[in-house]
Amino acid sequence: MKKLVLIAALVAAWAAQPGWAADKAKSSCVAPAAIEAEEAIRYVTDLMIVSSVCQDTVYAEFRLRNKDTIVAYQKALITHHKGAAGFDRWNTSLANAAAQKQGGNQQICQQAAPMLKQASALDLKGFRAYAATQAASNTQTPKCAK
């Protein structure tokens, strides 16, 4: 019975995931700023999950240090997803997927040590540079001209 519930939840999460795939079907490209914002929010979400599982304070400290940048990225994605509701669906789906990916991994804290160390040092400028580098290396999402 538990497997059936888990499978149903996974199918529902997959079907409800708005992500870039739906956006790609609507347009042939994504603005570089939106790609950078997605990479940043993916990082923040992964950091939140890892920090929570490992009972570490890095996530809270990172959010305080980078609050303005995170809010700016969220606003960019709200625009990209055509409103707060679309962004909230995407962000919830992202967090659920990240939690499922990490679920049951007994070595997550050991594996995430480099990420926690990196997040401890990222300030506004460093975080933006990290997100921009991730966006530049993203070859899966077609980029629109600036």
General description of the model:
This protein is mostly helical. The protein has one domain (34-137). The chain is 77% helix and 0% strand. It is built from 9 helices and no strands. The longest helix is centred in the N-terminal third of the chain and has 22 residues, at 32-53. The radius of gyration is 16 Å and the shape is globular. The relative contact order is 0.19. Mean pLDDT is 82; it is low at 1-18 and 20-25.
Q: Kindly report the average pLDDT value.
A: 82
Specify Rg, calculated over alpha carbons. 16 Å
Structural domain tally: 1
SSE pattern: HHHHHHHHH
Task: Assign an overall shape.
Answer: globular
Low-confidence stretches: 1-18, 20-25
Give the topology, please.
Elements: H1 2-16, H2 19-26, H3 32-53, H4 58-65, H5 67-80, H6 84-102, H7 108-111, H8 113-121, H9 124-137
Give a short synopsis of this structure.
With 146 residues, the chain is mostly helical. The protein contains 9 helices and no strands. The model is unreliable at 1-18 and 20-25 (pLDDT under 50).
Distinctive features:
146 residues, mainly alpha, 9 helices, globular, disordered N terminus
